[in-house]
Design a protein that fits this description.
Low-confidence stretches: none
Mean pLDDT: 88
Number of helices: 6
Amino acid sequence: MALNKDKKLKLYFSISEVAQMFDVNESTLRFWEKEFNQIRPRKTGKGTRFYRQEDIDIIRLIYHLVKERGMTLEGARKKLKENPETTVRHEEIVNRLKQIKDELLDLKEAFDALDTAR
């Protein structure tokens, strides 16, 4: 769930932008907001949500625990409460390994293309 450089400059993101970042429904984000008190988007008088980077970081952890590791919401809530630093480190390591894997696959494709060209 890497953000591009332009998005890192933004202070607030709409619910649709955040849903798209994680490929989840907006309703999932609203539900997680009720289940995890760490997610606190700003809301306008009409109830429009605007997520800060801190909210997105928590959503990334929840996504990792629930969608990638298959934990229940209760399990994810417990993990975030009891051991947030380890959870953050683990998620960062997993994301870095995914980036390395993608880079290696790109290199393999480049080498395969060179072999085919010969």
